[in-house]
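Consider the following input, taken from an annotated entry for Peptidase family M50 (Thermus brockianus).
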Amino acid sequence: MGVLALAFFYASSVNLVLAVFNLLPIPPLDGSKILQSLLPLSWHPLLWRLEGYAWLSFLLLLTVLRGPVQEVLRFARRVFFGFFFG
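Applying the prediction step yields:
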């Protein structure tokens, strides 16, 4: 049973990290679509133009903002597992 619990822990950790990462408001991730739906229509052309620079956003995210992003993901993982495992 211990091996199954450990496998569940790692699988759900990866799934949670990917879910939180996908919600970041960076094109082409889903978070940018959520942000776009909350902004006025006049902002949409700007967001569409920014989608062409998505690779730069990922590079920025993975280099400059690596520490803060890791902290957000670590916090989300603690909350998630605290909810399920007390």
